[in-house]
Q: What sequence folds into this?
């Protein structure tokens, strides 16, 4: 990624979509998600030399996105005045601890993803990133705990209870179509100035890495 323009563009397209989706569900508004995606990618390229385990790049990128999202939520005009607490969700002790799936493959992939987005967006804020990282992104419990600065036990508890709340709404939709499902949100195309900012950060860090390598 650090030396090939094509790899750079593929990296941006791949991770920008994922960061936007995570931030949209966690931050709760498109404008915030767009801002978080751009800030995260800039930070990624500015600090790429700090990535010690390239095979864990997804977890590293989401860690940066999580921090950027927290900052954005604090200053956002779209942040809610009140959010549900952990105690306001049902414990869900009776459901199986596995990712929520529709019965008998009733939904096609796009409809299912849009439905899950709607249901996740309605969860209390502490639950949303756990579900996105574990069930949508497929990261491990340990990676999710590290990204969110939580213990693995807390991640498991939040995931279990979030799935219980989601199951209730999903069952309502599957049986009664009791909610409207909107198309999956996607980021707007990057402006040329946004691309230029990312390329500049990438080239600057690539030059530093190349310099360091030549001195070894």
A:
């Amino acid at each position: 990624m650090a030396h090939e323009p094509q790899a750079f563009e593929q990296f941006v397209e791949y991770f920008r979509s994922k960061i936007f989706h995570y931030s949209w569900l966690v931050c709760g508004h498109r404008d915030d998600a767009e801002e978080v995606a751009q800030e995260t990618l800039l930070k990624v390229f500015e600090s790429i030399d700090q990535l010690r385990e390239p095979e864990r790049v997804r977890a590293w990128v989401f860690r940066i996105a999580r921090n950027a999202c927290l900052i954005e939520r604090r200053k956002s005009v779209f942040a809610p005045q009140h959010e549900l607490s952990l105690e306001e969700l049902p414990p869900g002790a009776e459901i199986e601890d596995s990712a929520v799936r529709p019965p008998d493959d009733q939904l096609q992939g796009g409809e299912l993803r849009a439905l899950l987005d709607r249901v996740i967006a309605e969860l209390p804020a502490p639950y949303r990133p756990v579900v996105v990282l574990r069930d949508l992104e497929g990261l491990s419990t340990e990676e999710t705990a590290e990204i969110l600065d939580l213990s693995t036990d807390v991640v498991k508890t939040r995931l279990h209870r979030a799935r219980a709340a989601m199951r209730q709404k999903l069952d309502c939709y599957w049986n009664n179509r009791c909610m409207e499902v909107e198309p999956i949100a996607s980021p707007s195309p990057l402006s040329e100035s946004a691309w230029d900012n990312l390329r500049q950060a990438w080239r600057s860090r690539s030059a530093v890495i190349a310099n360091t390598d030549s001195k070894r």
